[in-house]
Amino acid sequence: MKVQVHVTLKPGVLDPQGKAIHHALEGLGFAGVADVRAGRFFELDVADDVTDADLDAMCAKLLANTVIENYRITRA
Amino acid sequence: MKTAVIVFPGSNCDRDMAVALETVTGRAPAMVWHRDSDLPAGTDFIALPGGFSYGDYLRSGAMAARSPILRAVAEAAARGVPVLGVCNGFQVLAEAQLLPGALMRNAGLNFVCRTAALTVENSQSLFTAAYEAGETIHVPVAHHDGNYFADDETLDRIEGEGRVAFRYAEPVNGSARRIAGVLGDAGNVLGMMPHPERAIDRAHGGTDGLRLFEAALGVLA
Questions:
Q1: Which residue in the set A61, A62, A68 is minimally distant from B149, CB to CB?
Q2: Topology (CATH level 3) of domain A2-75
Q3: In whole angstroms, how far apart are CA A73 and each of A18, A57, B66?
Q4: How confident is the model at residue B199, as a pLDDT?
């Protein structure tokens, strides 16, 4: 089974990379972009008996640093 | 004094750290590989060196923080053994939650490599006892991910508890409250982005890092 994990910076955590990407978009002439936040995406191929609690632990223990990041798990 | 340097794949300041420890103690440290699960018996000082452990995969220090030897380091730290993490070593200690906060990409996005002026904030810790509070020292920095972040509540707490060991005298990387080095809650773990092991020999431009090792290794006259 495919599981998707999105890791994003918590609101309020400054994101210099997102800011630089935003500037680059403006430099390319794309108007109307108010803000860019960069994140990380994982696709896990897991056995069917892997539980939601297992997935949550994987995110909390390794995939995300919960000091600065939130994560969202989606079973495909 | 039995010291140990933890070596990860991608560490690149491990030998500098070993030279610093041997210079101060007169005895070469044990070089301990990341896959070992135990420290040499009687280890009484542990250093996590700078570098790019595991190629900075996932996040700087993230993989190293989950390596077998880190469990032994955490146990030793809990017993009160001094642990010094420099640069990538600081990132590893933060990822391992032995220190609060996280080290993010520098605010200017550039790798910063120069000598930085630091203010000694706490001269009472076992690592900083040979400095004067408020003293300015000069120590090299060389990092891409040194932008210290913690939420305001945590920052207030560690400042209130005297756990900010060093601050940058001027902004270097966007660190919250210009924090350059943080102590653990029991005072025996120090993480810092600047490299004291690169400031122990006059021929390399300065010796301001030497007193950190002298204090921590208990060899002050």
A1: A68
A2: Mth169; Chain: A , (3.30.1280)
A3: 22, 11, 22
A4: 97
